[in-house]
Write a structure and sequence with these properties.
The structure is a homodimer. With about 325 residues, chain A is mainly alpha-helical. Chain A is built from 16 helices and two strands. The first copy, chain A, is globular, with a radius of gyration of 20 Å.
């Protein structure tokens, strides 16, 4: 993973050296604050790795890769406004540290800055990269829309949920990899394959996030275990349980959705998940998408590092 | 103005035939609603006129021109959220007709759709057009930021105000014209000149809007006369008055800012504007920017129609 660490350092250095206009300070300061929150920089990393794998010039992919990271952080910023979330990565969210209007407007500016960075892609692939980026960006909005709609629906199916996380999370990983491939001059087939790899790894990763929220280790997961249960969040776990449960179990589960948000609720819902085998279903689904992802790498050269990194993402503490 | 009408019809037809994805309906329906609100389509019209003036193929400019109109409508949508405005062009604003989260997210989607349309610019000028568009889009956010900051400041100068409206309103007119010029293959000097023309016409237009809010004819202005005075809006009129007033007049003006928002307030503030000659200052400034604009057209061929249209914008009911 030495190369990965080297790339992350490269990316973080590039993020730190982005030059924002001096004024208006009130517009650009929240943008910097949001980007400085850290995070794993997975998306730009994937773009850089893909570019390198296909023998491209890594210098050429850095700016478009930053564009993806800035876009991702823009979505987090606006999502936090919509979710009324107070804390992000241990710090107050932008709309808490400033105000909601600042969060909306600085987010808008961030979306433009992201596009500017993507526009620094080499002229020979400018349109192709931009088209991929815009298509993906719009899909992410669609995913967020479905996510919001699901909150007030109680008939969401597992298929609909998978489609939502595909749009909201997975396509950006596919886009990052494909962007690196395009800039490196990979063949269309290779670019599409690596996109599919990213998309499926993204699905596995998000499903695992749902799983770890119930079965993870509080020390390494970074969030309170059972947080999704407390919030009645319609995760793959809960949707599967609601779909599978019948009779008394279904009644108990529905009653628990109305119960006080305390540790007892977490324990009881987790017990139902166990009874219904939802934990096993989720693990199988994660494995299914991971394997589907890997199958797209058969014709891709030099993919060992990417496989290793993807494993580190989807097999963390499972 | 027959050509102008023909172009507006072309633009409106193109707007009506934009194909949005079927789903999620809840994301795209507000986008359509916002775009169908109408408006004068000034920005796409300017892009088309400029393209035609320089002998370009009008077909090539339509999509990028739509991008500008969609971006403009996106800014209106998010501005309405930030201003908590209930009505836009006689209809409930998106955040009123749906909700705030929908307005934020559909606005985000609209920004991406706008960029997609701009990306349909011909390959030979793709990067140039995109760079101009992104730069302008970011400037518009800067303008909105200044506008919001001015609300809580009482030391805004006329120069700062002009810079704010330049960013918030004028640069997009310049951008529209320059985009048309670039697509038509105009020289860099011509493209810059027509940008400057648009920028200065934009300043004249916005200053006139401020002026007409006090001195306009309610029937043709479309908004209540004195609305800005009622809301203590820091327009060019009020800033000039606050700058010029001294002694008792200054005291009266400050007292009026705290007074009840009624017709008497409008009458008294308007009276002070008259005493201070703020109406004359504003008219002179409008003329100054209109003339400055026209000076940039000296080396531009076939500009009669554009001049005529600009006059119709800045000399309406003055």
């Amino acid at each position: 993973m030495q190369t990965v660490d080297k790339y992350i350092e490269l990316i973080n250095r590039a993020i730190s050296s982005i030059e924002y206009p001096q004024n208006p300070f009130g517009l650009y300061e929240p943008v910097k604050y949001q980007l400085d929150m850290g995070g794993k920089r997975v998306r730009p990393l994937l773009a850089v790795m893909a570019c390198d794998m296909f023998g491209g010039n890594v210098e050429e992919v850095i700016s478009p890769a930053l564009g993806l990271e800035i876009f991702h952080n823009f979505t987090l910023l606006h999502d936090d406004v919509m979710d009324k979330a107070d804390i992000r990565r241990g710090r107050p969210t932008v709309h808490k540290a400033w105000c909601e209007n600042t969060a909306i407007l600085s987010g808008d500016a961030m979306q433009i800055i992201a596009t500017q960075k993507v526009c620094e892609a080499p002229a020979r692939v400018h349109k192709e990269v931009l088209d991929l980026y815009n298509k993906t960006a719009l899909e992410i909005c669609e995913g967020q829309q479905y996510d919001m709609e699901f909150e007030t629906r109680d008939d969401v199916t597992c298929e609909e949920y998978i489609e939502m996380i595909r749009l909201k999370t997975a396509v950006l990983l596919g886009c990052a990899l494909k962007m690196g491939a395009i800039i490196a001059g990979a063949t269309p087939k290779q670019a599409d394959d690596i996109y599919k790899f990213g998309e499926n790894i993204g699905l596995a990763f998000q499903l695992q996030d749902d799983y770890l929220d119930v079965y993870g280790d509080a020390k390494t997961f970074g969030k309170k275990i059972g947080g999704d249960i407390l919030n009645n969040k319609k995760t793959y776990m809960l949707i599967s349980a609601l779909t599978k449960a019948i009779g008394k179990t279904k009644e108990r589960l529905y009653a628990l959705l109305d119960a006080n948000a305390d540790d007892d609720k977490i324990a009881q819902v987790t017990a139902i998940y166990g009874e219904l085998g939802v934990d096993k279903i989720a693990r199988e689904k994660i494995t299914e998408y991971s394997q589907k992802a890997l199958a797209y790498l058969v014709d891709i050269p030099n993919s060992e590092e990417l496989k290793f990194f993807a494993n580190s993402l989807t097999e963390r503490k499972l």
